[in-house]
Amino acid sequence: MTENTAAPTSATPADGDAEPTIEEIAEQKQVRLDKRERMLAAGLEPYAIGLAVTDSIPAVRERFPELDADVQTGERVALAGRIVFSRNTGKLCFATLQSGDGARIQVMVSLAEVGDESLAQWKEFTDLGDHVFVEGEVITSRRGELSIMVSRWAIAAKAILPLPTLHKELNEETRVRQRYLDLIVREQARQTVRARALAVASLRQTFASHGYLEVETPMLQTMHGGASARPFVTHSNAFDTELFLRIAPELFLKRAVVGGIERVFEINRNFRNEGADSTHSPEFAMLEAYQAYGDYHQMADLTQEMIQNAALAVAGSHVVTWADGTEYDLGGEWDRLSMYESLSEAAGVEVTPETPMSELKKMADAVEIEIDHPLPGKYVEELWEHYVKGSLTRPTFVMDFPVDTSPLVREHRTKRGVVEKWDLYVRGFELATAYTELVDPVIQRERFVAQASLAAGGDLEAMQLDEAFLTALEHGMPPSGGMGMGIDRLLMALTGLGIRETILFPLVK
């Protein structure tokens, strides 16, 4: 018997391959419920507590990496796992237990070790999917497989519903809606959870090495701001007022900088009431950071360092291997190119901040891009995506955006009509963005007023005029650099997966 062997039992379809029908699942559920009742009648607990687990399956496998066949180690262990294989034969029953991280070990329940009653109960009450506790000696079978010769066992948690067929790939709908099954069945799902945890821990370590403090800011806000996005709206009964789920933590983090927390970051959830696709989710994890006396160049250096450190933490190298086997190099110094200059070169016509709206509309019409927006900068950005975005292969910082689409960004110190902002593109999508922050409260108020005019004209993504934030800014915010990066998208860059695979429990309709 091998670890990955699967065999028909009461928990799998008779042919061992086809998924059970709804009627078959209902029948199996009733069979298991009946077993639960018989266990209770026999004085057995189907959901036991106080089990003396002293070892784990991975630890036992690590302690005994290579043993000859038919060896008795004399070492006793007590561990638990989920049954993913079961074969009951005569006086000796075999099962494979799986731990949460996917590690497996064989257990052997024999008449000679546990006695008639316990063996009969194993055969009668256990099913695939059950969590069981076993205590016994570490041995190897005659075929050399590491095993536990059980002397005592108990059902830790009775599974009322059967597992899916373990050797078949789950469809995407099941993976997303029932992620717990995905984690049981698929190693890639477990690896993605571990990769996310390693990446986030690495981000925090990088920030700590640069003297940043982590804070938490409100998710329920009386005004939505910090980004151009459509918010979710809710109502507070206690305050009898309309509230918004935050679209960005920016305006509160800047308040922290005003208050003297000069290097600050937050990793938390954002909510945007917009579309969902392979790179967008209405609820997503976001990192934002601000550094007093920094600018967007320093934020680019920091962002590159953070992502490269995360790659090392997850993959052990700056070259990451995606789920489809493709290798992607995140190492070295990343390219930095100008939005206007790269667009001009790709389109074959010079585009500048002074290019009139009529010319931009002609360019959009010529390549059949439909844009319905009053700002010339929106046309520039859409044209850039059409002409340039698809040609980027390496990680690239796209620098210096139109001023009219960036209301929270400082104007460029030497170039008129653009702001000191970059977007980082990795794997064909925007991964992060950064600004040299606008800290002049007079200009910020003018920008907010312009945004309010857009909102009055029906732009649902326009920002509101936030007097509380302006009041904070009027107390003096030092010149600063700020950056934001989606954690889910970082995992996309490191693993090659879509956004719904990198979120443990994504929102689905």
TrEMBL record:
One of its GO terms (molecular function) is ATP binding. Its cofactor is Mg(2+). Residues 1-21 are annotated as: Disordered. Binds 3 Mg(2+) ions per subunit. Residues 201-506 form the Aminoacyl-transfer RNA synthetases class-II family profile domain. Mg(2+) 1 binds at D423, E430. Keywords: Aminoacyl-tRNA synthetase, ATP-binding, Cytoplasm, Ligase, Magnesium, Metal-binding, Nucleotide-binding, Protein biosynthesis. It is an enzyme of class 6 (ligase). Residues 1-12 have a biased composition (Polar residues). Gene3D superfamilies: Bira Bifunctional Protein, Domain 2, Nucleic acid-binding proteins. GO terms for cellular component: cytosol. InterPro entries: Aa-tRNA-synt_II, aa-tRNA-synth_II, aa-tRNA-synth_II/BPL/LPL, Lys-tRNA-ligase_II, Lys-tRNA-ligase_II_N, Lys-tRNA-synth_II_C, NA-bd_OB-fold, NA-bd_OB_tRNA. Mg(2+) 2 binds at E430. PROSITE patterns: AA_TRNA_LIGASE_II (PS50862). Its EC number is 6.1.1.6. It catalyses: tRNA(Lys) + L-lysine + ATP = L-lysyl-tRNA(Lys) + AMP + diphosphate. GO terms for biological process: lysyl-tRNA aminoacylation. It is found in: Cytoplasm. It comes from the Bacteria. Belongs to the class-II aminoacyl-tRNA synthetase family. Homodimer. This is Lysine--tRNA ligase. It comes from Microcella putealis.
